[in-house]
Specification:
Length: about 210
């Protein structure tokens, strides 16, 4: 179906084509950025929008319309604090936001989490590949595998009920699915001919990272 979108300042007025579903994000509620604005000095002057009457998420905008999510400006705080991002549709907060009930930790977006994991990934890659002899093409494949693994982490609560919806991951926004089996178990058990040995080596290095 076609949906009309307009930014609060009226600068963006467009129509997108969207698929419909009975449930999105398992009824996950939106985060009220105004609740945290006065708690953090770097967010005090950010004009976050007021939430509508509906308090749950009823639309997801993914990579098909990345032009609506493109960061125009960002305001960062200290380590572990959420950042503010200005997109064509307006301001939002990304990162860890402690406004949930029972002192649970909420996360909105995935940029802040990705930054923390990216530094961990750099250290892991350096430890595994420091003495490895790989070509530029093989190194690029390893980076692609590590990125795929990072983007397959859950953004929503993981449930132990098999009847619940699958968790939402960054890969859903990037490639439309949770992720591929980039490092199959068969690399440890399947014999390879000479032409496949380098591929097997790349898979082993990616798994170790």
């Amino acid at each position: 179906m076609e949906i009309a979108l307009e930014s609060l300042d009226g600068q963006v007025d467009t129509v997108i084509v969207a698929k419909t579903s009975h449930s999105i994000c398992g009824g996950m509620k939106t985060t009220n950025c105004l609740e945290i604005r006065d708690q953090l000095k770097h967010l005090k002057n950010i004009p976050f929008p007021k939430l509508g009457k509906r308090s749950k998420i009823d639309m997801l905008i993914g990579s098909d319309y990345y032009n609506l999510l493109f960061p125009v400006k960002e305001v960062h705080g200290g380590d572990g604090e959420p950042s503010a991002r200005l997109c064509p549709l307006g301001w939002t907060a990304i990162g860890t936001i402690d406004v949930c009930e029972q002192h649970e930790s909420c996360s909105t977006g995935f940029l802040h989490t990705y930054r923390m994991q990216k530094s961990d990934a750099k250290r892991a890659i350096a430890a595994v590949l420091s003495d490895a002899e790989v070509s530029d093409e093989e190194l690029e494949m390893i980076f692609a595998g590590v990125e795929s693994l990072l983007n397959s982490r859950p953004l929503t609560t993981v449930s132990d009920d098999p009847n619940d919806n699958l968790v939402l991951t960054p890969n859903h926004f990037l490639i439309g699915q949770m992720g591929d089996n980039f490092v199959p178990e068969s690399v440890d058990s399947t014999p390879f001919n000479l032409s496949g040995k380098r591929w097997r080596r790349v898979q082993e290095l990616t798994r170790h990272v």
